[in-house]
Design brief:
heterodimer; A: alpha/beta; Rossmann fold; 30% helix; B: Beta-Lactamase; binds guanosine-5'-triphosphate; binds magnesium ion
Chain lengths: 204, 132
């Protein structure tokens, strides 16, 4: 749920990085946090982690400057990807305005990618939301593994699994090195702000 | 969940109400937040020293967690949460479908007074936001 403060001319939106466990959601946020200036970023909040696994969520507030005279404040969240944390994912989804689905190129994550997207569909539906309405971008992460001997999926396989119905924009990324991370953020921010602004007729 | 579009007059009205009912009663900090953890209004002289963004996000999440627990034991919601610290305590209450009020106060203020004032405040804030 976006918050539009007409008095301070601020728009607050919530963008969530969703996807299976270990696909690289937290890595995206960490890269963004480390690359942004202190004025543009707030404190990164990482709640309850066990080793590197997210148990609740990560939060990174960003200040993206002015668009159409409005100050754009974005809160980036990650969900815990592991299947057992479904209740937590539902909670974090509360008030979502935009989504990045981080899929994993690893061959062994083939099923998990699909399950996670289905889980997203289901949890949104419980809130009477659909992916036709909420902006979503796909990220195929861990591209650096493609030239190695580790078994990976092909881009075509991932597209068939995840983008047949969504038909949305795909970014091929290596989150650990930051490749494609800001491109993804830019695109989802643009779409999310556009979505919120047109909903409230803030654009001409 | 509907987006919140806030006009200057609603915000000013709400702020004045919070100042009059809670801040004047000795409360340090009041954050009115939405369910997603966004800050709607922040009041009190400590708000610039506190990490209000994180407090709001965590308070919303915490409230969400306990609501889920409530459902599991057959309750709709626990209408409020109270955490007592050595010096400061925090009171978190739902005051409408979308809004949560976070109140932080020291041991100079009694919980009973806080609860009474918040009950009054909830009514006026609901009215200002035009909700049921
Ligand atoms: N090779 C490679 N490894 C990556 C990449 N992105 C993330 N990783 C690694 O994958 C592991 C899991 O990354 P996280 O970002 O913690 O995964 P997550 O999606 O937040 O996982 P959960 O919190 O369990 O849902 C870490 O060891 C990362 O270093 C990438 O682009 N390439
Ligand atoms: Mg994580």
């Amino acid at each position: 749920m976006a918050l539009i403060n007409l008095s301070k001319r601020e728009i607050h939106c919530k963008i969530i990085y969703y996807g299976p466990g270990r696909s690289g959601k937290t890595t995206n946020l960490l890269y963004i946090y480390n690359a942004m200036s202190n004025q543009a970023r707030g404190k990164m909040l990482t709640i309850e982690t066990k080793g590197e696994r997210t148990l609740f969520f990560d939060l990174l507030p960003l200040n993206l400057g002015k668009i159409n005279g409005f100050d754009i404040r974005i809160q980036l969240y990650t969900v815990p990807g592991q299947t057992i944390y479904e209740a937590t994912r539902k909670l974090v989804l509360k008030g979502v305005d935009g989504l990045v689905f981080v899929a994993d190129y690893l061959k062994i994550r083939h099923e998990k990618n699909i399950e996670s997207l289905q889980d997203l569909h289901r949890n949104l539906l419980e809130r009477n939301l659909t992916l036709e309405e909420i902006p979503i971008i796909l990220q195929f992460n861990k591209c650096d593994l493609l030239p190695t001997s580790i078994p990976t999926l092909t881009k075509e396989e991932l597209e068939t699994d995840l983008n047949r119905e969504l038909k949305t924009k795909i970014f091929e990324t290596t989150a650990t090195k930051g490749i494609g991370v800001f491109e993804t953020l830019k695109e989802i921010s643009k779409r999310t702000i556009h979505y919120v602004a047109t909903k409230h007729l803030l654009t001409s | 969940m509907a987006d919140l579009v806030l006009t200057a007059s609603v915000l000013e009205e709400t702020k004045t109400q919070i100042e009059n009912t809670l801040i004047k009663a000795g409360v340090n900090t009041v954050l009115l937040i939405d369910e997603a953890g966004n800050i709607v209004v922040a009041c009190g002289h400590k708000i610039n020293d506190l990490d209000t963004t994180s407090i709001a996000a965590l308070a919303a999440a915490n409230f969400g967690v306990t609501s889920q627990i409530a459902k599991l034991i057959g309750e709709d919601d626990f209408a409020l949460l109270f955490h007592k610290g050595k010096k400061d305590s925090i009171h978190v209450a739902r005051i409408s479908t979308d809004l949560i009020l976070v109140t932080i106060f020291g041991d100079n203020v009694s919980l009973g007074l806080i609860r009474l004032r918040i009950a009054q405040l909830a009514k006026t804030i609901e009215k200002a936001f035009g909700q049921k």
